[in-house]
């Protein structure tokens, strides 16, 4: 796990800017709709924070959800109501914060997944059928290395272990399927006898 410094710097800058605009007595509602401002602010904060920590996809998803959506999106509105800045608690501000944060989180999670899939394709990685929807970085969708025993031949030890002494032997059937072939000596004697008989007939 490492910190991406450019994204960390951008997130701190946006956080300070949003904190000053949201917690101070400055009124931006006269220039921009307050709910739109909340939506855009938390959308940008979530998108930037998602790429701050270089870790696996699930951990990044959970971390961003807790920090940006819950702590900042909900907690900032409660904190704002306790400060003497002539601002009142507004539930619709929380809704705008959460919607903007979830939209940014969804876009980043989708793009992160596509990025991992392209990386696997470049490495010629083939996922296990039925498990290719999971993230490898999370320990999901990985091959277990266990193969079906029916897909490979049985060894001599397995044959001996699975041998049933009460089973009926089929040696006679196997022998019956093999045609009787005369030995070379018998075949030679037969040829000699046939030659003598043919000579007697000619005499």
TrEMBL record:
Keyword field contains Transmembrane helix: yes
Keyword Transcription regulation: no
PANTHER family for this protein: DOMAIN PROTEIN, PUTATIVE (AFU_ORTHOLOGUE AFUA_3G10980)-RELATED
Region called Disordered, residue ranges: 122-203
InterPro entries per record: VanZ-like (IPR006976)
Domain spans labelled VanZ-like: 34-110
UniProt-recorded name of the protein: VanZ-like domain-containing protein
Pfam families linked to this entry: VanZ
Signal sequence extent: 1-21
Polar residues bias: start-end ranges: 141-153
Biased composition (Acidic residues): 158-175
Organism: Hypocrea virens (strain Gv29-8 / FGSC 10586) (Gliocladium virens)
Transmembrane segments: 36-53, 60-79, 91-112
UniProt biased composition (Basic and acidic residues): 188-203
UniProt KW keywords: Membrane, Signal, Transmembrane, Transmembrane helix
Lineage: Eukaryota, Fungi, Dikarya, Ascomycota, Pezizomycotina
